Amino acid sequence: MAEATASAEGLTRREFLYYIWGASVALLVVESTGLLVWFMLPRFREGEFGGRFMLPVDVLPETNDPPFNFADGRFWLVNVNNEVEVGCERMWKAPSGGPNEESPIIGAAAIYKVCTHLGCIYTWVDANDRFECPCHGSKYRLDGRRIEAPAPRSLDRFKLLALDQNENVLAESTLGEDGQYNTLPLPEGTAFLQIDTGDKKDGISQALLVGPLSQECP
Ligand code: FES
Hints:
Number of helices: 2
Bound molecules: FE2/S2 (inorganic) cluster
Radius of gyration: 27 Å
Shape: elongated
Low-confidence stretches: 1-8
Strand content: 15-25%
Distance between the termini: 98 Å
Mean pLDDT: 84
Number of strands: 11
């Protein structure tokens, strides 16, 4: 009787149910797509962790000096050169045997402040010229290279850009063969550093560097 009534109005009961079902599926698809887009959109703002930080180049330490601590961005800024004598006790040369072990390590880097073992916040220890983790004793060199386990790899790095006075990009971090960001030699005219904490690359597993830090000074 109901079908006869619907037919009389130009729509059968079965057609009506099909339309309801179709509309439900369409609604579900729209909702799922919306959720997916929302999930994929970056939700970090400039100057927040996970976003980009712009700092004047003056904050960068002198070559091989102790690192600059930028708490808001959860990174250290370092300026290293393993080919000079100044500060060499903080950047003693790595032995051969691993990827890029013999390459010069020169320039700036932004190093993530979280230990690669189990995620504790490590710190710079002036007395020992290295980063040390209070949780289980991992040690890292000034450039983030692993010195002592249990850290499974060297420290992670963020992408770094060198900008001029007008905020034009002069240079940016390049990726090494190992997938880690290389240190960035700063071009003449660099006025600002931009650190992209949304772009982090894992440190690499290298041989441990256990021993006195001054033994390989040039
Ligand atoms: S979390 Fe740093 S050594 Fe374990």
